[in-house]
Write a structure and sequence with these properties.
The chain is mainly alpha-helical. Helices cover 66% and strands 0% of the residues. The chain has one domain (14-69). The chain is built from three helices and no strands.
Length: 71
């Protein structure tokens, strides 16, 4: 017969969970700011400037997302 024992010794306190939540929120906010800044700056460029960078207007959102989230 087999037995499974779940041994979770270190559960996070409420303060630790709140600190993790704040850290995750701060990270998400920073990434969103990078996305919006990149999107705004690339959108402000002329089509010729974008072509010099090897980009088309349809790629702006993708490039901004990759700059912020790294995917």
């Amino acid at each position: 017969m087999a037995f499974i024992t779940d041994t979770r010794n270190a559960s996070l306190s409420l303060g630790d969970r709140f600190a993790n939540f704040r850290a995750n929120l701060a990270e998400a906010t920073a990434k969103r700011k990078i996305y919006k800044t990149t999107l705004t700056e690339l959108s402000a460029l002329s089509s010729r400037d974008l072509a010099d960078l090897g980009l088309h207007r349809s790629q702006i959102k993708t490039v901004a997302y990759e700059a912020a989230y790294g995917n």
